Predict the structure.
Amino acid sequence: MGEASGQLEIDGASVEFRVPDHVLPGAMRAFLGATPKDSEVDDLAILSRPIWLNVVVRSLRLYRRMRPRSIDHRCVYDPSCSRYAELAFRKCGFLKGAQVTIGRLRRGVLDQGSRRAGAEVHLEGGRRVQAVLVKT
């Protein structure tokens, strides 16, 4: 597996990161709250029509605000599964959207063993932090 690296600005501090590719989305969510793709979905307007789509999108966004912290950053996909579901319902309609969402969730469950991945983070000023991200 490859390694992703880059530099982020977090609350005015410059953070350099190096993580295995398969944990990059979770690491970005842990530090930034969302990946760029997650943010694109979050910025989409909530449509008033059709009503079923309005209800589905509002439900998914409520889930993202209310889900337990213990599962907050564990999705290994980008965009996250709930954001993928929102896009699927918007683009494919209700039945096909539900079908592709279920497929994505099943793949996620099958992909998730109890792997651990280390993330080495370098903070401005040379301080280094070793973080362990757990995918459960």
Q: What stands out?
A: Residues 113-124, 129-136 have pLDDT under 50 and may be disordered.
